[in-house]
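User: quick one
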Amino acid sequence: MPTATELIRPRSLDEALDALAHAGGDATIMAGGVGVMSAVHHGAARPRVLVYLGDAGMAGARTDSDGVTLGATTSLLGAAAACVAAGGALATLADALGRVGTRAIQSQATIGGHLFSPQPYGDLLPILLVLDATVRIRSAHGSREVGIADLIDAGSLAPGELVAEIAIPAAVGRLGVERLSVTQGMGPAIMTVAAYGANGSARVAVNGAGPRAYRADSAEQAVAQARPEDDPYASAWYRRNMVGVLAERALRAARGGNA
Amino acid sequence: MTMAPATQRQTELQVSFTLNGRAVQASAQPLDSLVAVLRGQLDTFSARIGCDVGACGVCTVLVDGEPTRGCLFPAFAAEGRTVTTVEGLGDVNSLHPLQQAFDTHYASQCGYCTPGMILTASALLARTAAPSRAEIQAAIAGNLCRCTGYQPIIEAIAAVAGTGGR
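Assistant: Done. Structure below.
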């Protein structure tokens, strides 16, 4: 008999930080529940202490001249609404938010949880990478801000920490997003490539061609950095070949040409 | 610095919510899914358990009007919310227009996906009165049907929307 899972339902961010500080390494953070519940049903996880953030008052969006700041438990639907309102390249991000799963997933999944989506999920990570999003990490002992690339490379947080907010800077340039999938509207993407162009320069980022999403300065570099593996969705060979194709297309869109 | 966490640890919870217009209560462990509680304790069997990992859509229920994966939604999180299953839309004596249209258009064969399809369609029509065929297709993309090939389902929803699938 496995040990019963214990649930803690903090009613504020401070309570959540307190709960995480006490639970230490035993804690699993749940917000919308999509990631935790599917991992449990896959048999891949059996949390001992579940800290549920859905009642902690952390959802919500702030838009100002600096960009959009999303509380970590904002649903993908809520995030999309805020990005539509911000306009410009962030409206393209809103389109991408509308293609993560279907509406049933978008209403439940949170933007903070998305940052920890295992492969092959995590469609939005390349977009957040090219837009230079930053993440506010809190614990009972303090607060730090890290770039999204550093969080992705680290892969996880220290015990006691949580992502409180995601800040997406106002984007004056153009965003190009190429999502490669064999199904319409459901199932994970095989690969997502984003490119952002502003002031004559462009950058590109890739999810689905290696163990984690990564950023590059050109299509050639994106191919060189690819470390694809075979999985049930696509072979490593196919992924390696598609990185360059999708990066070229995304970069063309970001530079204003026809994709 | 406060010492005592205001947060107790629970392994068994009581959850109260509105199910198809009626106040209900159930007990749940932290990892119990909403669909498991609906079927196991509340005699609500229209929401099915299929893949149990959010891929197939047969567990779809409406939570506060939004289509939701019943298999991925923790039952305890339904506290205070309004949950609708297809039993709440209509019954054999008084079919909901979508139920009637699914019958008229042969949109249901084995029936396993049908409640989820109808709930997803009802949420679509609630937010978009006259959806295009493309919008209908996008809305039901997360609900798998292995019988009909989808065309009769799209026709049924289009008929209720009054768009004729344009």
